[in-house]
Design brief:
about 15% strand; 5 helices; about 30% helix; alpha+beta
């Protein structure tokens, strides 16, 4: 007997090629969270929903961010995280509504990102923005004069 299936998931709304191109260009081909440059990555960057579709986010340019696989994977469907300094639950960094330099700064010759705000600290922790492989890559790229990127994607 065929009982059929009830579709409980949301209908697919994939990012178009045109949207992907626009998002990558707007981000200067850098992860909008950790500022990794796609040209030095071994994995293709993703276009991710800042507010996940499962939480009502739309597949529209103002809700799409260019993200490396590490940041995208660690962020997943998170929109909030705990600030490790205060224990407070705060919103994660939104690259289209907030300025990167108000929430983050570089230390250790641009190898390590530190949080300047509860949002910055929580985002670094949740997305693991200082993954060992990223720190090592940043150090190498800095010695070659190609890190940090010339202009982070700020508003």
């Amino acid at each position: 007997m065929n009982w059929g299936f009830i579709r409980l998931t949301m209908p697919e709304k994939r990012v178009t090629v045109k949207q992907r191109t626009a998002v990558a260009k707007r981000a200067d081909d850098c992860c909008e969270y950790c500022l990794s440059q796609s040209r030095f990555s071994t994995q293709r960057f993703s276009v991710e929903n800042i507010t996940p579709r499962s939480r009502g986010g739309k597949t529209a340019l103002d809700n799409l961010a260019f993200a490396c696989q590490g940041c995208n994977g660690h962020k997943a469907t998170k929109t909030v995280a705990r600030d490790p300094a205060t224990g407070e639950i705060v919103s994660l960094y939104d690259p289209h509504r907030q300025n990167w330099h108000e929430h983050f700064a570089w230390i250790d010759e641009f190898a390590v990102i530190v949080g300047l705000s509860p949002t910055g600290r929580a985002t670094i922790e949740a997305l693991r923005s200082n993954r060992e492989n990223l720190i090592n890559l940043r150090r190498i790229l800095y010695t070659k004069g190609v890190h940090p990127p010339a202009k982070p994607a700020d508003i």
